[in-house]
Amino acid sequence: MTTVPRPRDSAATRGALLAAARTLFAERGYDRTTVRGVADRAGVNQALLFRYFGNKESLFAEAVTAQALAPLSDGPPETLLERLVTAVFADEPDGAMFHAVLRSGGTPAETVRTELGAAYRAAFAAQAGTDDPDEADLRATLLLAWLLGLGQVRAEIGAGADRGAVAHVLRAARVLLDGPTPSA
To answer: Which residues bind DNA (predicted)?
Structure first.
């Protein structure tokens, strides 16, 4: 009896590993996610994870970064703040990558946070209501720090359940980014 080898589909395998990694990193964070767990969830041998990504750190970076940067290119710059706040407060899977980065410690997560922070800080600084580049960077940095803090306590705020919370955050974030309104 001759067995027919199963056709290989590297793109499907790679995609399954990325999907499994996104889910597990969002649920457990970097430290509590294992390569074995990712491979098991994807239904493949963990050796394939190493073949496609090299190591857990590279898998984390690829699984998280592209999706977390998506709001930067998913619409016009003037709606970025709304897209990001909505994503931060979204129920899974929309907010999954932000929460994966927030829940994860260690060097790989810090590297991803640094990359994401630089991209978002530049985008928000470009929208800041000031011509002073240092002031624009400060406003963007404060905005991101505040949003990350809110993301960490979103369960207490009512993630996804209360659009009112998103509206309040958007109003306050806009004031922080635009600066104070002149007194009449």
So the answer is: 34-53
